[in-house]
Amino acid sequence: MAKGKYSQYMEVGNFSAEIILKNLPFVLFLGFLATIYIANAHYSEKKIREIQKLQNDLKELRWHYMSLKSEAMYKSKRSEVAKTVEEAKLKQSKQKPKKIIVSRNR
Fold it and tell me: CA 91, CA 68: separation in Å to the nearest integer?
């Protein structure tokens, strides 16, 4: 049997400890890979939650935009504009609008 740091494990007859000690760098490498795998899983789950939150925010903003757009379309109707300007004591003109023609001769 080999003498040295790990001789106590070999004297007991623990064969699996001998295999692990011989392959310690590989075992540490596997532990490192497992740590990276776990960290990557946490990172990706965090990003997925962030993407879902942003998608919900986008839906909410889109609904808000559509409601503001429909409200603006409703308020820009001729009858609604007439009601609004009536408060300022303005009245709708009875005459036809005049067309202005601009010639582009240089």
Answer: 27
Instruction: Report the distance separating Cα 80 and Cα 7, nearest Å.
Output: 95
How far apart are alpha carbons 7 and 17 in whole angstroms?
Answer: 11
98, part of any domain:
no
The low-confidence residues of the chain, meaning pLDDT below 70, are: 1-14, 106
Domain that holds residue 13: 7-85
- Whether residue 13 lies inside any domain: the answer is yes
Residue ranges with strand state E in the chain: none
Position 1 scores a pLDDT of: 46
DSSP 39: H
